[in-house]
């Protein structure tokens, strides 16, 4: 029974409303593409849904319960990937993914991690410190977290940035699998995304 | 608990891969402690008298040098965001970070202080008490300092602001830490000082992680 309800969520920046109150519902197996011009508040909306930023008004419900009151239970079901990847340059991809999985409360084995890196085409670089990888490769390490995660709700801020065509294709595949397994997906992107099924567009405007 | 342990291991591993950051604090301590005997001269009685105070001030400044890095790197690369999104209580995770910080910047000071104390002609009991008072005092410095680091996270020129916030709060630790060694030296016994240090340590360890979590949540909004 997983359903994300966003009820009259609004955002203020410097005393001015950034966007009008937003309300939408996302059910299991559904994806929502948040669209809008630069600076319209897409990232703020995603951060408020996760509870990283406070909202000026409104609330978010997960499975019918207000997330602000049941934070730990909600966070167990959420995976958020923002502009900064949350990876350490000095650690290898393996070490980074291991730490991330333990912190997310879903420890994974070394073999699973290696397999996820293999699908991202990074098997040969699993032991190198991240600082020697390119921007796109780092991004792929972060996306390997998606494959390892058991979270129901994925909140992805611009997941397709800095990826080559092959990686974009692979990521779309991963997202499709997630939706097929009744996962929920909330994401922003400036490019058209083909997830093989209908994606609700959500236009954010002042 | 597993998450806290993983976080401590991660921070220690990171520190071993950028050794310069940890070592610079220790070298600072060594240099400061070495400057005083050179400046004051080889008068043994004077050195014995000022030794505990100088070592304690040096340790305090050295542990403060490393504080800005406590949350800053995690904040820059987005790891802090992920900590806040972890289903584990943030207070526990933060206590793991503080613990790692103390292991890297406090514990080495405890080990170094008795060696540096030899320059001040401190007797062996005083050296032992120096190490003990630092062992109890430096975790308090890490705990209080972490609150300052969390409050000034992302503030321009935050380092100086943090020093102004945190140094006054370090005063009681300094007074009783250095006082313990002097009391032992003057024959009064240091038990009272040690008890007070311990009494400062316990609430600091208990409350600081929660205060830090609150400050971090605000910093990330």
Can you walk me through this structure?
- The complex is a heterodimer of chains A (about 210) and B (about 220).
- By secondary structure, chain A is α/β, with parallel strands linked by helices.
- Chain A folds into 2 domains: about 1-75 and about 150-205, Rossmann fold (3-Layer(aba) Sandwich), CATH 3.40.50.300; about 85-150.
- Chain A has 6 helices and 9 strands.
- Chain A has helices spanning about 40-50, 70-75, 95-105, 110-120, 135-150, 165-180, and strands at about 5-15, 15-25, 30-35, 55-60, 65, 80, 155, 185-190, 200-205.
- A 5-stranded parallel beta sheet of chain A has the order 6-7-8-3-9, sandwiched between helices.
- In chain A, strand 1 and strand 2 (about 15-25) form a beta hairpin.
- The model of chain A has no long low-confidence stretch (mean pLDDT about 90).
- By secondary structure, chain B is mostly helical.
- Chain B has one domain.
- Helix content of chain B is about 85%, strand content about 0%.
- Chain B has helices at about 1-15, 20-40, 45-65, 70-75, 80-85, 90-105, 105-115, 125-150, 160-185, 190-220.
- In chain B, helix 2 packs antiparallel against helix 3.
- Chain B is elongated and about 55 Å long.
- The interface of A and B includes residues 52, 99, 103, 104 and 129 of A.
């Amino acid at each position: 029974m997983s359903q994300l309800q966003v009820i009259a969520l609004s955002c203020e920046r410097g005393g001015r409303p950034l966007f009008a109150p937003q309300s939408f519902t996302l059910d299991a197996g559904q994806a929502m593409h948040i669209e809008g011009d630069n600076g319209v508040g897409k990232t703020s909306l995603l951060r408020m849904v996760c509870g990283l930023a406070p909202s000026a008004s409104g609330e978010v419900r997960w499975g019918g319960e207000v997330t602000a009151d049941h934070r730990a239970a909600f966070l167990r079901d959420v995976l958020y990937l923002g502009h900064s990847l949350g990876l350490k340059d000095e650690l290898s991809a393996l070490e980074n993914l291991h730490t991330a999985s333990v912190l997310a409360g879903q420890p994974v084995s070394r073999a699973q991690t290696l397999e996820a890196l293999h699908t991202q085409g990074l098997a040969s670089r699993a032991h190198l410190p991240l600082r020697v990888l390119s921007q796109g490769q780092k991004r792929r390490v972060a996306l390997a977290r998606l494959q390892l995660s058991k979270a129901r709700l994925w909140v992805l801020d611009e997941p397709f940035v800095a990826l080559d065509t092959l990686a974009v294709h692979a990521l779309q595949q991963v997202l499709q699998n997630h939706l097929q397994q009744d996962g929920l997906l909330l994401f922003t992107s400036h490019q058209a995304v083909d997830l093989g099924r209908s994606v609700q567009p959500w236009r954010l405007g002042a | 608990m597993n998450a806290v342990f993983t976080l401590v291991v991660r921070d220690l591993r990171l520190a071993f891969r950028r050794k310069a950051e940890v070592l610079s604090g220790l070298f600072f301590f060594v240099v400061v402690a070495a400057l005083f005997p050179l400046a004051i001269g080889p008068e043994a009685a004077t050195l014995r008298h000022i030794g505990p105070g100088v070592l304690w001030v040096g340790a305090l400044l050295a542990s403060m040098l490393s504080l800005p890095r406590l949350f800053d790197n995690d904040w820059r690369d987005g790891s802090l965001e992920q900590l806040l999104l972890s289903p584990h209580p943030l207070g526990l995770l933060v206590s793991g970070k503080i613990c790692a910080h103390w292991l890297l910047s406090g514990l080495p000071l405890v080990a170094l202080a008795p060696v540096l104390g030899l320059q001040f002609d401190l007797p062996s009991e005083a050296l032992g008490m120096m190490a003990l008072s630092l062992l109890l005092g430096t975790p308090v410095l890490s705990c209080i300092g972490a609150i300052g680091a969390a409050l000034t996270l992302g503030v321009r020129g935050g380092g100086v602001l943090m020093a102004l916030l945190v140094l006054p709060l370090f005063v009681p630790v300094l007074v009783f830490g250095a006082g313990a060694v002097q009391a032992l030296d003057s024959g009064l016994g240091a038990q009272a000082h040690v008890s007070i240090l311990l009494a400062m340590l316990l609430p600091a360890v208990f409350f600081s992680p929660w205060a830090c979590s609150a400050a971090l949540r605000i910093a990330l909004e």
